[in-house]
Amino acid sequence: MIDKSALLHEVSKYFEKGTIYGNILIHRRLISELEREAAEGFVTGELALEELKKLKEVADKVLVNFEFVGSEKEAGNVDEVMRDYCLKEGCTIVTSDEIQKKIAELQGINVIYLQPVIEELELEKFFTDDTMSVHLKEGDKPKAKRGRPGYWQMVEISDEILTSNDIKRIAFEVISSTKLIKDSFIEIERKGSTIVQLGNYRVIITRPPLSDGWEITATRPVTRKKLEDYNLDERLIDRLRERAEGIVIAGAPGMGKTTFAQALAEFYMSMNKIVKTIESPRDMHLPPAITQYSKNYAEIGELHDILLLSRPDYTVYDEMRNDEDFKLYVDLRLAGIGAIGVVHATSPIDAIHRFINRVDIGTIPNILDTVIFLHSGEVKKVYSLDMTVKVPTGLKEADLARPVIEVKDFLNDTVEYEIYVFGEQTMIVPVKGIKKMNPIESKLNRLIEQVIPDAKVKYENGEYLVVLSREDISVFNRKLVNKIKRLEKKHGVKIRIKFEDNSEKDLHE
Predict the structure, then answer these.
(1) What's the total number of domains in the chain?
(2) Per residue in 114-133, pLDDT tens?
(3) What is the extent of the structural domain holding 34?
């Protein structure tokens, strides 16, 4: 009797070569299960049905009986139903599933175990040393991205147009090889798509109706770097070593974020820190000392409990996408655990945007202290975040002072953005280009604009100038002059009145 794992292991080849010989039994419950999976869009279900068709053709060719047995309405797990049948009828189970093999042997059932045999995969033939990813699409020529992050080109691998059968054959080989190659598994299987981690390769398989044809995208890390390979400024190294605990690594897809996160994880491990990762799917290649958790295999809240109870020094969260991901990152930080999050962003400030609507603005500097932006595999910008109370740049009234998050370029210590609440809206304001007034200029400006709104105040050559039109001189009364004189005396500065035609008026006349 053939089970699903054997079908996904291309069992037809064993019968064709004569390695296995005998009547072939297929339980109707298995047929029902595969039919349901294929109808719901599961790739493995359709591939298993394709193999079943091949197996029937091989059975006719080698002159063995091909028979459907049992009832499709039998209750229970399909593997359990098949074992019960074999116990009663004395048949042999053919499987490549080690768990199925062990349970069947414990029950006294004869088993033929399809031992994994490692061969060169057809998919691997598309890769060269500098290939980042391979793109195989039904009805198109096979293509590949070759180069390195930020510096790559798309090339055609062959002039041959791929058919759906070509893609299915490669997909079948990939899925069946998860039992052959170390660190390989089906990470996610949904209706219409399957994501497989196959050693160093991450393979995404899609099929209609999700996609308009069968497609395989396979990616592989081209380089593996250590932190010292990035030639980082020593001040940044010191910050990562001594202070940074809420780190976000941002950048566009394919710019080397995960490679940098991997290097950072090994950096903290070398400092004798306990480091764990959350990945979806797991595609980092890290030493055994770093535990890698799969978000896809965890139940809701499971990773939250594990990490908060085991208290690692740092947790690397690869590919943060939804509210649940950000909530876990925030909870880890508020619990005092160092967190390194990886997010897609076209600019470094976009990474901070992701947190704005998810947490209270006042807690952001406690959660997020360092943003590292990567482009073309290199660190292009580093932001630090600090909280202060001040009048936001560009505003004038003293009573507008409020908590402001200053987003600074870490290496030159200049403020590039300010984040604050104005009314009920959270503002993210670029500071560059906004004219900053010193306190005296600000006071003088407020004093003048209450009486002459059109007047301008500026600082030139060590003096403050009040520039106004001659029509406004009528409202420039003694009371205002006395206030300006007191301001001069209090701060020891010189203030002059200048008309728009460049003539001047002496305050002291």
Answers:
(1) 4
(2) 876 666 788 999 999 889 89
(3) 4-113
